[in-house]
Amino acid sequence: GRIDTLSLGATGLGTTLFMVGSIIGIGIVLGVDPILSQAFGAGHPRQARKTMWQGVWTGLLLTLPAAGIIFLLHAFLEPFGVSAPLAKKTGEYVFARLPELIPLMVFVSIRAYLQAAHRVGPIVLAMIASNLLNIPADFVMAFGDEGLARIGLTSIGLPAFGVRGLGWVSAAVTTLEVIIGLFVLRKIDPGKGTFPLAPPDRKLMGNIFRLGTPLGFQLVSEIGMFACIGIMMGTLGTAAMAAHQVALLIASFTFMVPLGVAMATSVRVGRAIGREDTRATRRAGVIGIRLGAAFMFTMALVMWIFPETLARLLTTEESVIPLAITLIRIAAAFQIFDGIQVVAAGALRGAGMTRFLLFANVLAYWCVALPISWELGLHQELGPKGLWWGLTIGLGISAAILSVRFLQVSKKPIKAIPLSQE
Predict the structure, then answer these.
(1) Of 354, 351, 363, nearest to 411 (Cα)?
(2) How does DSSP classify residue 188?
(3) In this structure, are residues 173 and 134 in contact, taking their beta carbons and an 8 Å threshold?
(4) In whole angstroms, what is the distance from residue 55 CA to residue 106 CA?
(5) pLDDT tens for residues 31-59?
């Protein structure tokens, strides 16, 4: 936001393209999630560790297809009406970030294993360490010598790399997270039945693909919806795209808390199913959904009361701030539904019900949210406001469907995922 308005829009759109391209692979690797948590719940830690390595192999296998999707998506920006300068700047950012795909895919499986093993502390440390690197490195790579001066260092003739530098830093910090995760794995007591390194297992990888493929397409459904909204927003001008990005970054920031609750809920539900505890299964899901809703309601109040303060944290462009304020207030309602749906999805993921997640998301996002956004934003002349109201309605429907489904299935015992032989 402090480079220029074009760069703000480009990094937002580029991040969307990167996530859409990689999300299928991430979702497939997340097929390890219910297997891991249920294996730990059933008292089979050795099987859990073996499953983690199959997730790593699966992620590496999916890296190249993900890169191909990102290239293809970028090629379609201008044909879909995105301006040439914005499309070019987006390409600079996203292509610089492509090397991040390898550590990203690997870390998904490592993180899922540590969560299922109740070793979340190292994940927090990895995130803190990566941000301690990310913040000053972004200034230095984006602004060169000016960035060095901002963090109190001497100029060395370093050029300003702009958005490309931001992409390179993203790849570097994700690699750091993997290194920390591998170090933690080495410290886990081998007496607990762990594998130092497991070779590819076709049967277990097939099970991961079976559970993870619906997750991958479910995430594509959700991220793809945001990508389409971003592309439509891009046709409304650079200022609209920048305001959209400001509101989306704020919403994404607060979303991290219910996302974490969703991950914890998935683990707790999976462990309870693994040990055949029906009451604990339902309790874990219900408490998780309540926590997600309560936190997001609080954040919604903050966004409604202080929208200008939040907007000015991310941009100094006076032409962007009024529209950003409007979108942030709409995002206040959006937040509550988003918090509920992500935790309810986590509960169902822990139960291995990944196909239903795909069905619910396609219905809520592609059959409801996008048509409403298209109509309100581009045909009823509500512009960016109409696009965001369509998003909010879709998320509300998703939250209702997923929550009701979990409450229904958790009334009786849920069958665990069969574990392969160790």
Answers:
(1) 351
(2) S
(3) yes
(4) 8
(5) 999 999 998 888 888 888 888 999 999 99
